[in-house]
Write a structure and sequence with these properties.
By secondary structure, chain A is α/β, with parallel strands linked by helices. Chain A is built from 13 helices and 17 strands. In chain A, the strands form 5 sheets. A 7-stranded mixed sheet of chain A has the order 4-10-9-8-7-5-6, sandwiched between helices. In chain A, strands 13-14-17-16 form a 4-stranded antiparallel sheet, covered by helices on one side. By secondary structure, chain B is α+β, with helices and mostly antiparallel strands. Chain B is built from 6 helices and 3 strands, in the order ααβββαααα. Chain B has a 3-stranded antiparallel sheet, covered by helices on one side. Classes of the chains: A alpha/beta, B alpha+beta.
């Protein structure tokens, strides 16, 4: 680890508060949303204090400064991903980013590479978050296309053994997660992107759990779309990102102000990307806050953050596995695996376990984690998930271990 | 500790030894309810004879609160008329929404007063209500198909 976690924690005001009668906050729910450093909170608040105006319109100084801040945030996102500015679209969250792709494909003219008919296929995986499953289910329902998927092995990896019969000449889109929000599995992309592009399909990557935690260069990923949420990457809620290198070919999803080139009473033409996909006044202060978040992450270094999390995940898994009756769901080692660790503890229901952990100041997520088909496949009604970030250290893991042991006594 | 107000002994007893768990073969109405935020699921059978609830059986998976609550409801509401059951259900719902300000009337709610502590934990109210809402739904269905009491 090349940064000081104690020092990092001081940048996050929330760690100054206590939980449940004076207990230290042990925040192990960054997979749901991350905490925010002061620099992000101030960037968002300063936008409102000093530069607030509607971007891309208005003939005054504030409008100019607001536009500069907003477009400056776009440049920061582009640099963070190794992308170009015009390849970055701001949305309200990753769910909207993924819906944008699905709806825009549904708007594609017949004959376009994006248009789907009943002869076409959409491919997803069994480990998708609902946000990267249901939009595709619905697109399939609207177009008559067939929905197919990669299954998950008992080890929590994608089963790619039938890749050539799952991704076929009729596949138009392959949508998958980069890192499972439940299992922590980091999916290998090479074989999938190669096969998808071989048959002319586009690849949509849900990168919500990867962009905040590891270095990402979109040019190396070989995908066509990538979505992530600002709030999981230290940024504010209300801002998400959709990156694509093929925006020019894709029709718009939401229509209205800002996204047009010309308008008559009966028709309209579209501004070039990214504006084509940003109808209406966007979440400006939130985008600016996200820019500050990416500055913060860059300053520490994404490789350092990834290394820290892998090391801490190893410590977490080791400690968890010492606890009797505890089983980790998903990969049992840190190979190609991020810091989301889901587990079950004997017969204690995750909701009851989560409640007890909360009484000890330990914040975790319980339930199906918006991946209901996956939990069904794993044969568990629900799991408890601890997810790590740069501000966690071994003392957080130790607090979790002690609290789980306490819960076992409490519910014995 | 605050947690003990949630996990009363009575609740943990019902959780470990649930009443009326296991679905009856015959029923007047069968409903399936889920708590989409956590994945808890319950199937509940209600049987009525001459406007009186003669049996409530159920099966499901869920946390101690949801399982204990349905166990308590299945015991408490049986041998009541639908009007009586409705009154009890309303009193229980009020207790759940009381944010810890009510203790519940043990003459009406019996074991269900042990769930009073749930009202201090907003995220768990849905757990406690799962079985009761399933019952409410089943009662409506029975009364629509049989014409009621």
């Amino acid at each position: 680890m090349s940064f000081d976690v104690t020092k990092v924690r001081k940048d996050f005001p929330i760690f100054e508060r206590t939980i449940r009668d004076g207990k230290k906050l042990v925040y192990l729910d960054s997979g749901a949303t991350s905490q925010k450093p002061l620099s992000v909170i101030e960037a968002e608040s300063n936008f409102y204090k000093f530069t607030n105006a509607a971007v891309h319109r208005g003939a005054h100084q504030l409008a100019e400064e607001a536009t500069d801040s907003y477009e400056g945030a776009r440049l920061k996102v582009a640099n963070f991903l190794g992308a170009k500015e015009e390849e970055i679209v701001f949305t309200k969250n990753a769910t909207e980013s993924l819906n944008l792709v699905a709806y825009a494909m549904g708007n594609a003219q017949p004959g376009s590479r994006f248009a789907l008919t009943s002869k076409d296929q959409i491919v997803v995986t069994e480990m998708e978050h609902h946000a990267n499953l249901i939009p595709w289910q619905q697109l399939a329902a609207r177009t008559g296309a067939e929905l197919k998927w990669f299954e998950v092995t008992p080890e929590g990896r994608l089963d790619l053994s039938a890749i050539n019969s799952i991704i076929t000449e009729n596949t138009k889109v392959v949508a998958l997660t980069h890192q499972s929000n439940v299992l922590g599995t980091i999916n290998p992309l090479e074989a999938i992107t190669a096969r998808a592009h071989e048959v002319g399909a586009v690849v949509v990557l849900d990168a919500c759990q990867s962009v905040p935690h590891m270095p990402i260069d979109v040019k190396k990923l070989n995908v066509d779309f990538l979505a992530f949420s600002g709030h999981k990457a230290l940024g504010p809620t209300g801002v998400g990102v959709l990156w694509s290198s093929v925006f020019e070919e894709l029709p718009p999803f939401l229509f209205g102000g800002s996204m047009i080139e010309t308008v008559t009473m009966t028709s309209a033409t579209w501004a070039p990307a990214p504006r084509k996909f940003e109808a209406g006044v966007p979440n400006m202060a939130q985008a600016v806050g996200l820019g500050a978040a990416l500055d913060y992450l860059t300053e520490i270094g994404m490789q350092s953050i990834f290394d820290h999390e892998v090391e801490l995940t190893g410590y977490l898994m080791n400690g968890l596995l010492q606890i009797p009756e505890l089983s980790i769901v998903g990969p049992q080692n840190t190979d190609a695996r991020g810091g989301s660790v889901s587990f079950t503890v004997g017969h204690i229901h995750p909701h009851d376990l989560g409640q007890y952990l909360d009484s000890q100041g330990v914040a975790v997520r319980t339930g199906h984690h918006c991946a209901w088909p996956l939990t069904r496949k794993l044969g568990v009604p629900a799991t408890t998930r601890a997810s790590l970030y740069l501000y966690n250290d071994e003392s957080d893991c130790d607090a979790l271990f002690a609290a789980i042991t306490g819960a076992q006594k409490y519910f014995a | 500790m605050e947690l003990d107000s949630l996990y009363q002994e009575v609740i943990l007893d019902h959780y470990k030894h649930p009443l009326n768990k296991g679905l009856s073969e015959n029923y007047g109405a069968q409903v399936h309810h889920v708590n989409p935020s956590c994945g808890d699921e319950i199937t509940l059978n209600v049987t009525a004879i001459d406007g009186k609830i003669s049996a409530i059986t159920w099966d499901g998976v869920g946390c101690s609160i949801s399982q204990a609550s349905v166990s308590i409801a299945s015991d408490l509401l049986v041998n009541k008329s639908f009007a009586e059951a409705d009154a009890i259900l309303n009193e229980f719902t009020e207790l759940m929404q009381s944010k810890g300000t009510k203790e519940g009337n043990p003459d009406v709610l019996e074991d269900a007063v042990a769930l009073a502590g749930v009202s201090k934990f907003p995220a768990r109210i849905k757990c406690a209500l799962l079985g009761w809402m399933a019952f409410k739904d089943a009662a409506v269905r029975i009364n629509t198909t049989t014409g009621g009491e």
